[in-house]
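Table S2 (text version). Query chain:
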Amino acid sequence: MKKGTIEFRIGFILTGIILFLAILSVFYTPYDINAMDKTARQLAPSLQHLFGTDNYGRDIFSRAITGSRFTLLVALSTVGSCTVIASALGLISGYLGGPVDEIIMRLIDAVSSFPDILIALIVVTILS
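Corresponding structure-token output:
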């Protein structure tokens, strides 16, 4: 995809906004994420509460930007660990070649044949 396309620019700007809010949430959130306000229950989005409030009167925007830090941490650590594992397997396969290459290729083919949701369920089951 070319860098000048409108899709790239929109995606880049939205990603930048999410990263900015995640970093900003370390230093500032409009409301305490656990503070409950019985008078502000189930409020619709407004200038005071950008995403509204939940059943307990907690600000959803503050909770969302605070949760984005953990989400980004999980995403980056997943990408990093997968990159390290895939690079190591690729180096081993390319360097040794022959039967080792065939075994690694078949293992990767077997893992790739499972649907993503099934792999996610297996991982959740193992980690629970």
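Notes on Table S2: DSSP finds four helices and no strands in the chain. Residues 6-73 form one domain.
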